[in-house]
Structure formats: C-alpha cells, structure tokens
Amino acid sequence: MPVPVPVRVPAPVPGPVPVPGPRAFRELRLVNGSTGDPALFVDDPGRDNALLFDCGENAALGDDRLGDLEAVFLTHHHIDHFIGFDRIVRANLDRDKALHVYGPEGTIRKVYQRIKSYEFPFFPFMKIVLEVVEVWPDRLRTARLECARRFPRPRVAESPRSGPVVYRSDGLSVEAALTDHTVPCLAFALVEEAAGANDRSPGSRIAYVTDTAWSEASRPGLLELARGARRLYCDSFYAEAQRPQAEKYRHMTATQAAEFAREAGAGELVLIHFASRYRGCYESLVEEARAIFPNTTAEIPPPAAKIPPRAAKDS
Ligand SMILES: [Zn+2]
Ligand SMILES: [Zn+2]
Fold this sequence. Notes:
Blueprint: E1 27-30, E2 40-43, E3 50-53, H1 63-67, E4 69-73, H2 79-82, H3 85-92, E5 98-104, H4 107-116, E6 129-135, E7 139-146, E8 157-160, E9 165-169, E10 172-178, E11 186-192, E12 205-209, H5 219-226, E13 231-235, H6 243-249, H7 254-264, E14 269-272, H8 283-290, E15 296-298
Parallel strand pairs: 3-4, 4-5, 5-6, 12-13, 13-14, 14-15
Antiparallel strand pairs: 1-2, 2-3, 6-7, 7-8, 9-10, 10-11, 11-12
Helix pairs in contact: 5-7, 7-8
The structure holds zinc ion (2 copies).
C-alpha cells in the first residue's frame, strides 16, 4: 500500500504587495491547477501589467484580471493551450492598449483566424491592438492586428533573433526556448532583471516548460532556460511506466521532470499537465518525482462539483 503523499499548493511568492519598487512576480497562479488546462497567471498586484503563460481554459480569471494582461505567451496551438484566447480578446476589446501575444511558428495566422471568426460591431471605443510575435529558431515575425482598423489582413515583418530574450518590460524579461513536441512549441522563463541581467541566484527566474519530450533535441535549450530557477513548472503528463507513450506523444514523465529539475539546479519543481488517465491517483506522480527531487509539489484541486449526468430516458 503506497504511503499517501501530502500534496500542497506551492506557497505564493512573497506578498502582498505594496508597490512601487522593482517589478516582481509576487503572484503566481496555476489557473486550473496541475490537472486542468495549462495556464500560469503572473501578476504584481497594484500594477495593471499581468502576464499569462498559455491560454488553456481561463474562466477562473475574471474579466478584470484578464483585462490587466500586458502579454500572453502561448506555448503552442493544441486546443488545451489555446482555447482561452477568445476570452482574453473579449476582456480587452475596448481597452486602449496593446496586448502582446507571443507564440511559435503559425501564431500570427492562427490568432488572425480566431479574431476573424467573429463579427464585431466596431464601436469607436474598441481600440485593442494585438502585437503578435512568432518566435522561430533564427528569427522573429511580427504583426499588428488593430481593432480600430477593423482587423485588416496582417502585414508581417521579420527580424533576426539574437539571444533567448523575446520580451522585456518594466524590469522583467521573458526568454523562450524551443521544445520537442508534435508541433512547433515553446517553453519560457520569466526573469526579474532587478537581480542583474545575468543573475542566476535563486529568486530571479521562474521557468515554465510543458509539452515536450525530454530528448537530445530539447535538453540543452531547456536546461539553459531553467538553470538555477527558483521554481520550475514542468510537464508531467505521464508516469515513468508510460515512458513509451511519453516518447510517442512528445511529453515528459514525472521521473524525467524530476531529473530535469535536479540537473538544472532548480529550487522547487511544480508538476503540471497531468493526463486524465491518472485521475484519482495524481499523487502517485508527485511521489514518483519526489523520489528523485524531494522539493516537488503539485496543485491537485478537489473534484469540482459537476452537473450530474442526465437521467436515463424511460422509452
Ligand atoms: Zn500539445
Ligand atoms: Zn498539452
């Protein structure tokens, strides 16, 4: 009989606030825990410049939180990572601001298609501008989608990519690395620059890595991205017993996530993106990782109250 593993919610990064001071990631929330669609909300409360990593279902974030977003970082376009994008557009539609959207190859076309699938009344107060950036291995492709101009077909500009940083704003930077998934996919690191541009001391870096095989192709970039991270959020779609499936579908096992955290010298590992096949025994994934990397946690919410299935018909 395995010993039950107490699973705790990772401690919020020190807060509450007060601002001003250097911008920091004081609030980090897995919107759907470790078991739902991937989405990591990052905020420094008191400033309206929150960040969101991945666009899985995000109904738990009200329009006020979504309306605070400054930038969204999409890992890829599988539906569980992209389905929440429409709610973000809606919550920001009448805001006079630029919302920055980063993603892998194909993001400009896919974001444009999503927007154009709706009819808009185009009221004059609808001023949202989407600044979309595609991150390729060697270049960045950018396009500006403007509501006030009724979202004409985007004109795409290209520039060479140099170094891992793709976004920098108000004391924070975001780095990107390519993963090894079934489609183009990115991993990200969020860095507090107040600690120094090259600082790798604990506290300056949070890494978000999901939907990747742990392979020769992905390891060097992901290790560099997560090296010395205070917290590593990492794909743990499978248990090690399902290693063949992990390799086939380009995901990681809990064991691989733990080996990654240990090799990267991370302070804490938070497992995310558990496959639903482990429902009822998610703790076993945490237990598996803890055997290799003791400071492993996960957010396993209690089962939500569900609408009961419909009653059987008489006829
Ligand atoms: Zn995927
Ligand atoms: Zn996924």
